[in-house]
Q: What sequence folds into this?
């Protein structure tokens, strides 16, 4: 029997983390969960530790770690509990671990994802914000260490599957365009004037996917697709003019690659993250994912539309940031993280999300990226600018969503 592959799951308590554990649980002979990490959901992490018996669990705050340590000890578990951001990086680069699932949300996942890449791991990348903010730094680390970077985002996983296994860049491999599909989210057909009044719960009610709240809002604004365009640029070394977005409300075609001879190769499947996760876990082989098989006759028809940039200005902002280059995508991402947080907290209207991002992009100098420090400095500057914008736009503490609804 071959040795089981050891796995760290960064962000195991989230949506992607839970789907990863679901697939792993189907293959106890192939995978061993070595480390799990969370931010706040200690109860979920506690249950995961009892079920999967990892050697190490990590939470951010030491008080939460003490509590988890005590509960696990009382339950007879020998799992070690660590705390702090440095511990996240440590479990990403442990010698014993072969595979790291990067499933923390936001730029908070950048350092541990980079640590896994620098340590030459098989990195399963869900944390798209790491590539958006630090694409050059992360790709350099992958090349230098010989790490294997496998995309988990369903679109990029689809593109990866549709490219030849010896892919050597668009020109050498005859790739004309990459077509990223987008569902259009919950507001694809909502009358534009009603967008002012949509609530966080409405924005998070995605028609086809169940995901964490941040990416759900990103899907509703289509910033998610903008981030994915930037992600594709780095993963596949394709210039922005060769990356196109097409709306496909059924979320069955996960993305497509168009070749110079006119062929278009797509990957299809039910919208279930366990498919790309199982693909990456089993790569270069295939393993079962527990996913319902596709019944095309039942679905009947697949639709495709061009995205409406008036409805989805975030998509335009993302293309603009990618064209500007340097730290512009980092600034875009930071402004978006602040805007989404404020929207979810009920203090910013849905249509103010792109307004805030545009103001921040126009108010921060973007520079070249020579290393991680440039990325982190741009992130800090953009967050400061976003906070200043929010202060200025919210006279006498009026919530912006009320002002927006008038
Ligand atoms: P969730 O919000 O469901 O989960 C996020 C995970 O990260 C949780 O484990 C959370 O811990 C942890 N976390 C959050 N903030 C921090 C922090 N500051 N430090 C350490 N850990 C933190 O997100 P998703 O699973 O939906 O998404 C994860 C990533 O995958 C995102 O980058 C997203 O864009 C990407 N992705 C997700 C898809 C999906 O279907 N959900 C599809 C494609 C990509 P806790 O639970 O304790 O808060
Ligand atoms: Mg996606």
A:
């Amino acid at each position: 029997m071959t040795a089981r592959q050891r796995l760290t799951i960064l962000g195991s308590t989230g949506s992607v983390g839970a789907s990863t554990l679901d697939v792993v649980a189907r293959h106890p002979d192939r995978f061993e969960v070595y480390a799990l990490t969370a931010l706040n959901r200690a109860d979920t992490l506690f249950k995961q530790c009892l079920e999967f018996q990892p050697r190490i669990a990590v939470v951010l705050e030491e008080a939460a770690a003490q509590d988890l340590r005590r509960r696990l000890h009382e339950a007879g578990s020998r799992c070690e509990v660590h705390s702090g951001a440095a511990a996240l990086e440590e479990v990403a680069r442990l010698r014993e671990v072969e595979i790291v699932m990067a499933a923390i949300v936001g730029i908070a996942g950048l350092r541990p994802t980079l640590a896994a890449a620098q340590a030459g791991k098989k990195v399963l990348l869900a944390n798209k914000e790491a590539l958006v903010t630090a694409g050059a730094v992360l790709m350099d680390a992958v090349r230098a260490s010989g790490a294997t970077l496998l995309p988990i985002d369903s679109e990029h996983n689809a593109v990866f599957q549709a490219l030849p296994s010896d892919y050597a860049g668009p020109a050498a491999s005859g790739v004309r365009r990459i077509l990223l599909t987008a569902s259009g989210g919950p507001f694809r057909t909502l009358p534009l004037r009603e967008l002012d009044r949509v609530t966080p719960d409405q924005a998070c009610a995605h028609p086809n996917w169940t995901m964490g709240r941040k990416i759900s809002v990103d899907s509703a604004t289509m910033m998610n697709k903008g981030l994915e365009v930037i992600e594709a640029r780095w993963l596949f070394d394709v210039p922005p003019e060769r990356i196109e977005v097409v709306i496909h409300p059924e979320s069955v075609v996960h993305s497509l690659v168009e070749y110079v001879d006119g062929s278009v190769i797509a990957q299809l499947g039910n919208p279930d993250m366990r498919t790309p996760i199982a693909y990456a876990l089993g790569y270069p082989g295939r393993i079962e994912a527990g996913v319902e098989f596709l019944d095309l006759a039942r679905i009947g028809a697949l639709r495709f539309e061009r995205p409406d940039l008036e409805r989805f200005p975030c998509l335009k902002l993302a293309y603009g940031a990618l064209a500007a280059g340097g730290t512009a995508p980092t600034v875009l991402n930071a402004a978006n993280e602040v805007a989404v947080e404020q929207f979810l907290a009920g203090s910013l209207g849905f249509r103010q999300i792109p307004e805030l991002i545009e103001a921040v992009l126009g108010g921060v100098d973007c520079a070249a990226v020579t290393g991680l420090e440039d990325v982190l400095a741009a992130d800090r500057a953009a967050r400061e600018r976003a906070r200043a914008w929010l202060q200025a736009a919210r006279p006498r503490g009026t919530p912006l969503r009320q002002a927006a609804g008038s």
Residues 372-393 form the longest helix (22 residues). Confidence is low (pLDDT under 50) at residues 402-406. DSSP finds 18 helices and eleven strands in the chain. The radius of gyration is 21 Å.
